[in-house]
Amino acid sequence: MILLSTLFQNLNLEDWCSDTTNLIVATLVISAITWYTWLFFLKPKAQSPPLPPGPPGLPIFGNLLSLDPELHTYFAGLARTHGPIFKLWLGSKLAIVVTSPSMARHVLKDNDAVFANRDVPAAARAGFYGGSDIVWNPYGPEWRMLRKVCVLKMLSATTLDSLYHIRRNEVSKMVRHLQSRVGSPVNVGEQAFLTVMNVIMSMMWGGSVEGAERETMGAEFREAVAEMSALLGKPNLSDFFPGLARFDLQGVEKQMQAVVLRFDRIFEKVIGERLKMEAEGKGNDSKDFLQFLLNLKEEGDSKTTLSITHVKALLMDMLVGGSDTSSNTVEFAMAEIMHKPEVMKRVQDELEGVVGKDNMVEESHLHKLPYLLAVMKETLRLHPTVPLLVPHCPSEATSTGGYTIPKGSRVFVNVWAIHRDPSIWEKPLEFDPERFLDAKWDFSGNDFSYFPFGSGRRICVGIPMAERSVLYFLATLVHMFNWTVPEGEKLDISEKFGITLKKKTPLVAIPTPRLSNPDLYQ
Ligand code: HEM
Ligand SMILES: *[C@@H]1O[C@H](CO)[C@@H](O)[C@H](O)[C@H]1NC(C)=O
Ligand SMILES: *[C@@H]1O[C@H](CO)[C@@H](O)[C@H](O)[C@H]1NC(C)=O
Ligand SMILES: *[C@@H]1O[C@H](CO)[C@@H](O)[C@H](O)[C@H]1NC(C)=O
User: Fold this and answer.
1) In 3D, which of 374, 375, 370 has the Cα closest to residue 354?
2) What separation in Å is there between the alpha carbon of 281 and the centre of ligand 3?
3) Counted domains in the chain
4) Distance from the alpha carbon of residue 403 to the mean position of ligand 3, in angstroms
């Protein structure tokens, strides 16, 4: 029982209900048998190299009890003891963590096709329509079809260019809102989130939220996305003891379903309206993603069969994959440059030179702002917003560095730790955009010292969109306003783990207008 209660404490179990105890103990025994069976079958054959080293674990639970919820720092610590490839037993599940450029290359380049699969956590299955989206789909024809639609059509540079008016409109709204809050504290991440969210929603189905609704619905969405990210990053007993899945021990099944429902209601509504219009013969020639997907579904050429579930799952990918990743990056960048007035000054000077004091920033300015780009790169080095990538899962065993990575294990690539490795980076903990000025590193994932968007087949599909949005928002925030920390508050840059990394405490800052022409703020 002590063991059990430690377990629950460790995993933050609430609402523990004692009359299920017997059931659970029984199931744990069954799980133990499963575990040892697994262990037996996973044991590499005589000739193949051994499993990587790792911290000792307990029977049944493996290393689950000692998991620190801040997985990225915890894994970095273990790598210092056990080396660049180590293993952990999460209940009956074997996790392999890699923490060096050469190991990352093994997974993401040399054996890219083998590792292009996902090990889908229960939370993801519950949250993404059974995993029929891009992020969680196994490597195969369905994933390839969805990804092609996304990369070639929805998120291509041409499409993004043609939708610039949407981003411009939302950024102006943000500026107007900030202008109305001049002199009082503003939650910077929330503003960035609202703006990204509105941009994504407008691109998807032409709708965005305004006025009073902007605040309430935005806040609700942000909470929902944050909750999803937390649920996805949280070790789930159901994943590690398949026998226990149906009990949903952590009692958050309802929570996840409620989150999904909030999105699903909106999806149902916009898709329903669109289909109704079509049925009434009022063809809708809007150029948004939804219409594009619905047309594709109608056309249904022989190779692509897109269902309504796919459409919804793709919309979910865009909303969840694109929103807080980008807005958290803007928030970290703002916090870092406010912390370093000389960096802030340099960014503002660069903007003044290129944009001028009588103009708003336009996206066409962005390619002339190398220092700003260096700020974004340095922000994503220190705070890669997907710190362990999305877990990969090999479809067959491979070996590297004298160790075996067995088929079906859950592989984490600790890009966060590689980005802070003192053998690669000089003064790794210091925020210094200067190091990115020589354009040696980019977002393509070709260099395994720096790959905030991943690398290979599963690299982020949203890079062009992320780059535009983050740079554009950031440039606007610092060109249009000066920012100060409220009296008596301290700027804090610490992080909180989730499948997306976020600031532990929100960045709250006071804007004052920088440009003299008041029309620019209307
Ligand atoms: C600063 C912003 C962003 C960062 C740091 C980021 C990072 C990442 C990373 C690390 C992965 C996983 C790569 C892997 O599995 O190895 C990923 C996957 C993905 N991202 Fe992003 N991302 C960002 C923005 C976006 C945006 C704006 C979108 C879409 C609008 C997006 C959509 C996706 C999708 C759909 C996947 C799954 C790809 C697949 O599994 O095939 N991301 N992203
Ligand atoms: C754990 O998995 C169950 C399904 O087995 C799911 O309903 C629940 O939301 C998951 N919990 C967390 C914390 O991810
Ligand atoms: C298409 O539908 C959207 C909302 O469903 C609406 O905002 C837009 O005006 C429609 N476009 C046309 C051309 O009917
Ligand atoms: C903005 O801040 C800079 C540096 O702190 C200062 O020199 C400048 O006067 C400020 N501009 C306005 C309009 O307050």
Assistant:
1) 370
2) 13
3) 1
4) 57
CB atoms within 10 A of CB 120: 18
Residue 131 lies in a domain: yes
Ligand 3 proximity of 284 Cβ (cutoff 6 Å): yes
Structure tokens at 220: 């609700």
> pLDDT per position in the chain (522 positions), as tens?
333 333 433 343 333 333 344 555 556 656 665 665 565 555 555 578 999 999 998 888 888 888 888 999 999 999 999 999 999 998 888 999 999 999 999 999 999 999 999 988 877 888 888 888 999 999 999 899 899 888 887 788 888 998 899 899 999 999 999 999 999 999 999 999 989 988 888 888 776 555 566 566 667 777 888 888 777 776 666 666 666 666 555 655 667 777 788 888 888 888 888 888 878 876 666 677 888 888 877 776 556 578 888 888 988 888 888 999 999 999 999 999 999 999 999 999 999 999 999 999 999 999 999 999 999 999 999 999 999 999 999 999 999 999 999 999 999 999 999 999 999 999 999 999 999 998 789 999 999 999 999 999 999 999 999 999 999 999 999 999 999 999 999 999 999 988 899 999 999 999 999 999 999 998
CA of 274 to the centre of ligand 3 (A): 8
Examine residue 21 and state whether it is found in any structural domain, yes or no: no
- Quote the domain boundaries for residue 232: 47-521
CA–CA dist 427, 429 (Å, integer): 6
Atom of ligand 3 nearest to the CA of 290: 5
Ligand nearest to the CA of 231: 2
The CATH number for 134's domain is: 1.10.630.10
Protein residue with its CA nearest to atom 6 in ligand 4? 482
Residue found by looking up tokens 């009022």 in the block: 282
Ligand nearest to the CA of 386: 1
In a domain, 78, yes or no: yes
How far apart CA 503 and CA 383 sit, in angstroms, is 9
Name the one residue in this structure whose structure tokens are 């620190």: 68
Domain annotation covers residue 350? yes
